[in-house]
Amino acid sequence: MSLLKRQVFEIPMDDLTPVEENFMKQTRLDLSDLPETMEDCIMETKEICLTKMKPMGVYYSLPLEELKEEEAIFPEGFCIKGGIVPLILSTSFEVIFYAATLKGFSEAEEQCEDAMDQYFLDAWGTAFVEQAAKWLHDTFSKELEGQEVFLTNFWSPGQHNFPIDNQKTLFDILKPEEIGMELTPRFMMNPTKSISSIIGVMKEKDERNLFACDFCPRRDSCLSAYGGACAKEN
Length: 234
Fold this sequence. Notes:
By secondary structure, this protein is an alpha+beta fold. The protein has helices at 19-27, 36-52, 85-88, 105-110, 115-143, 167-174; strands spanning 7-10, 54-63, 66-68, 71-73, 79-81, 92-103, 150-151, 182-183, 189-190, 194-202. The strands form three sheets. A five-stranded antiparallel beta sheet has the order 1-2-6-10-7, with helices on both faces. Strand 3 and strand 4 form a beta hairpin. Helix 1 (19-27) crosses helix 5. The chain is globular and about 55 Å long.
């Protein structure tokens, strides 16, 4: 039996704080001291996100039946593959699958013609969807309270040795089409402001605290390193 039943959420915009901190990290701008030439554009594109988009999410967990070399097997024949899989799930007995998206982002992006508007809309979109994914993480973490379990850090298809074609399995399990997400033939998600991830559930805390950024050679210069949907705990 799964620890978490499949649940779909319309995530309250008011709960997605602090998006401003994420936005400033991406753009390297201080919202309290903006150039006059940018201020209106930044506030207007934020308002578009607040009024034209709907954060949505879904999660579900499945027991881990077998862990093989470069493969994890779940009920009903589902499996995820990759060289990193046995390492990150070595102490897990269950895996949480989850996805978050900004429904309406694609339509707003299509209507945005000015290059500066596009840039700031993209930055706000990233900030909101990463906070939506964190909201999901906080929600299922609370649901698991009292069960004496621990969680690994999150891993998303396309990260270090976790092939992007695992998106197909995540979509088959989560069925996120219900919240407006689609998967392209090249395993890219639409809307582009979408996040899908897995998290292992353990009976004992893994002191290794593995994180995808640990394995990335660009982590020292990446603006999103050790942040976003679920920041690394020290």
